[in-house]
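1st attempt posting a full record on here, be nice pls
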Amino acid sequence: MAEVAVFGAITLVDKLSLWLVESWFDFKRIEIEIEELRKWLNTIKVYLEDTEGREDTEGLKLRSYVRDLAFEIQDVIEDLMYEATERPRHLRQAIKFIYASMFCPSKRFSSRMKAIKCKIRSIDALCICPPHVRTVRSSSNLFLGDEHHVGIEKHIKPLLSLVCLEDSSDKVISVIGDAGSGKTTLISEVYHILNSNFNCKAWVSVSRSSDGLLEKLCEALELPHKINKLRSCLQHKRYLLVLDDIWNENEWNWIKNVLPSNNTGSRIIITTRKRSLGSYCASSSHYIYDLNLHPLTCEEAWELFCDKAFQDGKCPDFLVDWSVKIVKRCEGLPHAIVTIGKFLSNKQQSMMEFRKVHDSLQYEPDNPFSHSFYRILWPSYYRLPPNLKSCFLYFGLFPEDYSIKCGRIIRLWVAEGFIEQKRGKTLEQVAYEYLDELIQMSLVQVSRWYLDGQVRSCRVSNLVRGFILSETMKDNFFTVVSRQHTSLGGEKIRRLSLHNCSPSILQSKDLSYLRTFSLFGGDNRIESFPRSFFRKVRLLTVLDLENSALHHFPEEAVKLNLLTYLSLRNTKIDSVPKSIKKLQNLIILDLKETLVTIFPMEIVKLHKLLFLFVGGRGTYQAAVGAQVSSGIGCLTMLEKLSLIKANNKNQSIVKELGNLIHMRELGITELKVEDGKNLCASIEKMEHLCSLYVNSASQEEYLDLNYVTNSPQLINSLILGGRLEEIPAWIGKLNSLSKIQLKWSKLQSSPLEALQALPSLKELHLYDAYTGTVMEFSAECFSELKMLEIEQCNRLNKVVIQERALPKLQKLTIKKCDSLVMVHITKNLLSQLEEVLVPQDLISMIKG
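the predicted structure (as tokens):
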């Protein structure tokens, strides 16, 4: 955790350097100190990376010192930023000069830096001594020993069939799966079955680095440690090589270059937790076996647990309820089930004991049986860089079994400063890369996917969350308080999450170091907050009150000068105060699904805003936007703006939107026909635009969007609500378009001809979009479409889907089409559909 704290301090120092340029104080006197601080932090970061894994007392003590000092540096920097932000804007220039001379925060910063420098010198003195011999944690998975391999048998035969293919070419087989999923156990079974099929066999457990890989391989084959000897020995042999727990492409590339390619039918089996790496290693042979796609069934998990927990393999009736709950918490992971089952087999078989074990899996991760499971998670965690460690640990702030929308976790990471800048990419794009890496590492699970293959929501398993809690309890990354349990990371609470309890419990807490605050469930009304709460948390940067029972905007929050993230999504607030302009560091403001329908004109003074969300659900399939004042075009850093009204009381604002050239997501409502030309001109300037939502002023108002000549080619989601004379020609050229929704279009000619050739289209939603009587999908059309919805096309009486049309369709919905008498469809297409919401009596089969 020391490296996480150091990374946070480095991020703040970099932020401070940019921020000071905008400050009205003269900070030249501390520029040298800031630069010295930056150099030391980067130096100690390298040292921590080099000494990762030291478990001797001095090493742990040193890392603890570094962590605490990094936190202290963060405190000093944020105090400086807060005090300098509190500048007296209303004073005249001469008085400001006097004020700055008397109260200049740089004086206090220099004073506090003296104490920090003393601590830096003491740490540097410790670092001079060479580190003790490092205790390196083994990265190999743990065999379950002579276990009864419940659930493994079903995998042995298909994997054996891959290994024993009658093919003289050499093959690589990747076995991928989460920590504890049984990869090593499965390969061990297959390895020992294949005694006579190969001339020689070798099993290598890959360590945390590829150092010594040659020696391990040669020792397994009983050969001298020389590459040429290895190659000559294997040149004419059919060999089987197992590389257990590979972690990166370099390790694989090294092995691939050392081994001969002799086309004797040799096989290399690799195991890894990283899906992307598994695909990379098997790129030439495409043989991948994913254990995550074949987890233990409920029956198999229960059998394995009973076999380990009870001598006769049978669960007593009075323990069934708690045993079922324990197995459920293990989420099908064989290693976890075996570990906990063995632990319980040595305990008194009582309801109290089983309940204690169940509860401790949730609330007390620091338990003997937990260590075994956490030990196999550690290599995955260790290999993460500091910023990804922070992103991973952040999942612990959410309640158990909580599925998190990706957009929410991404925005929180951005606001926290976890995301590094990369040339040519936005912070949000880099954050999605981080999330994908955590998923590839099997640390984060996907809960739901979008049809275009993007992750919609994600979570961490119960046991992984326990691992996170066990790590953060050692340090002070976050604090969770709930009715059942409190896990404190230290006396200075830096991130706080309340689960199912009232904010009133914070009355006696020291919150002066708090940076992040979030609420989940419980009595979380603003009235239940202690009156002094917002005065105590002056350094707060993230305030997440989503889904809380707020009825009024917390006006005290506008005094939080360092706030970067404010979410009041899905609350009952109906207005925003003019004082919102004080939040000059705000980059994310989320008021979606609230009752806010108008912004004060002061909102345009928040020049650092990247994301501005507002608006809620109104009438069916329509959304209510918020009115903004002229000047919205001044927010030139905005990347996401949704939903706003196209017109205020005085004039249309769509022309101003052309200044927002970094826009990636735009949602606009109440558009009038005369606004169409200006909106098209604005859209053309948004070359990064990915998502566009446009609603007309009423269902009968026409949308005139025919003026786009150079459409943004990155648009993947398009929603148009309003009358259309025809589908604008530029839409048919959107090669990246994955989803399109047409509402109230009332087209006289079928929309299919204009859309059927779109190469990436996955979802097509037609709501009151067509006034014709027949809709026919011809052969070869909509080659990638997975979801088709047709609704309230009241004149439509026949839908025909020809042979070879919609070859990848998964979901078909046709409803509320009052005149519909027939849906003509092929038997093949009907059999491939996963979901059909069409009146059965209307379906007619096409003979073919």
